[in-house]
Design brief:
single chain, about 450 residues, alpha/beta, Fumarate Reductase Iron-sulfur Protein, Chain B, domain 2, FAD/NAD(P)-binding domain, 3 domains, five-stranded parallel sheet, 17 helices, about 20% strand, globular
Length: about 450
């Protein structure tokens, strides 16, 4: 094996103008003319398949017809009635695999109506108005609900409960609310501080109090919440990251991709964020794509995204893969990581050795990002009485657990697809169920 080069990691690989251009909005909002032209392509199908394909059940033909009529308030209300985080989902939802894949225009013309971009056009148009211009809060019920986790599921549940007149204490362990929306999505998908703007817009409904820096560490805390509140909704996500279990995994320069993405999203100055000249990302999902593409945008010259199986098994969509390759990321399939190799000093990663059907290959690397999936940190739930299935919380369709007044949803729920839009639907359904139980 050839000698591996010494690690080359530094900040400021690009100019300020290059950073601004690289991390600009990946899909800017449509102009009025563009939106009207695209809306006219919709056939307004009866029993539209796009509605069925949307996990939140947005009446897609209805909101698009309102856009065509220049009624953006009506379009936005149709969207947000079904999906209170419609702005985020318009940016981050894999519409190409959901509503747009089901669009009749796909079969007819090979190109679906751009439902996601039309959704963003409508929702963004009302974000400068108060939420009360679209929704009003019911009279206070005097009931209190604790929601743990201020990501998509928790925010959705809190908003829907507050609309119904309940008081919600929304807990989150991080210094800012938003969960995946704030910390886990690529910066070019959530440009312009959208996650926090959407959060503040939703909080205008009233009745929601944020408690940040509150971490769920034990079953005793769950018991205390059940003691002090009429119901509890757990939307704790998947806080634990997996390990490769390989030699060299603890070398400097080896990181979890989710931590890298969170650091990038919170960085006040991208020019101060160091990146390697050669980066290897291990994984085949959206997190791997986001880490790989953003490494390139930060100035990495050579980025490899490596997946142990074939392309048909990847959880990242074809569009995500195409996005990665468009940005210069090299995709490799059928390579299983075997060892992370150290530099001459023995402390920093210098490469990754992979095995394949016909032998081995070694890729030099100054930085290695692991994007091999996340899992539920079940330790704090031990002793709560919650049942787990496949390492996640077992619930019914409305989020009920086997513990009275305790609900759960989002990525911590067994059986989901780890989609933001599904997490929103989980929170919405649980809120309706909690309201019915309290009512």
């Amino acid at each position: 094996m050839a000698e591996l080069p010494e690690p080359d990691i530094r900040a400021g690989r690009r100019t300020a103008a290059q950073y601004a251009e690289a991390f600009a909005d990946a899909a800017p909002r449509l102009t009025r003319t563009q939106a009207l032209v695209e809306a006219e392509r919709c056939l307004y199908c009866f029993d539209a398949p796009c509605i069925t394909a949307c996990p939140t059940g947005i009446d897609v033909p209805s909101f698009i017809r309102r856009i065509a009529d220049d009624n953006l308030r009506g379009a936005a209300r149709t969207i947000l009635q079904a999906n209170p985080l419609g702005g985020t989902c318009a940016r981050a939802c894999p519409t190409e695999e959901l509503c747009e894949e089901a669009c009749v225009r796909t079969a007819q013309q090979g190109k679906p109506v751009e439902i996601g971009r039309l959704q963003r056009y409508a929702v963004d148009a009302v974000m400068d108005r108060p939420v009360t211009a679209l929704f009003t809060r019911a009279a206070p019920t005097g009931r209190r609900v604790a929601v743990v986790g201020a990501g998509p599921a928790g925010l959705s549940c809190a908003f829907e409960l507050a609309r119904r007149g309940h008081d919600v204490l929304l807990h989150d362990a991080r210094p800012a609310a938003g969960g995946l929306n704030e910390y886990g999505l690529a910066a070019y998908k959530m440009a312009g501080g959208h996650a926090q703007a959407e959060l503040q817009w939703l909080l205008q409904i009233g009745g929601i109090t944020l408690q940040l820096g509150w971490r769920l560490d034990s079953a005793a805390q769950v018991d205390a919440l059940l003691e002090g509140f009429d119901a509890v909704y757990l939307a704790v996500g998947l806080g634990a990251t997996g390990r490769l279990g390989l030699p060299g995994e603890d070398l400097a320069g080896v990181r979890d991709a989710v931590d890298f993405i969170a650091e990038l999203r919170q960085a006040p100055d991208l020019a101060a964020l160091p990146i390697g000249r050669r980066v290897v990302v291990i994984g085949g999902g959206m997190t791997a794509v986001d880490a790989a593409v953003q490494s390139r945008l930060l100035g990495a010259e050579e980025v490899h995204m490596v997946y142990r199986r074939g392309p048909e098994a990847m959880s990242a969509s074809f569009e995500e893969r195409d996005w990665a390759q468009t940005h210069g990321v090299r995709l490799h399939f059928g390579l299983a990581p075997a060892e992370l190799l150290a530099d001459a000093g023995g402390s920093h990663v210098a490469g990754v050795r992979f095995t394949r059907a016909d032998g081995e290959v070694t890729l030099p690397a100054d930085m290695v990002f692991k994007a091999i999936g996340q899992k539920l940190d079940a330790g704090p739930l031990a002793g709560t009485g919650l049942a787990l299935h496949g390492g996640r919380v077992l619930v019914d369709d409305d989020g009920r657990t086997g513990v009275p007044r305790l609900y759960a949803g989002g990525d911590c729920r067994a059986g989901g697809r780890d989609l933001t839009v599904e997490a929103v639907e989980d929170g919405k359904r649980a809120a309706a169920a909690i309201h019915a139980e309290l009512g």
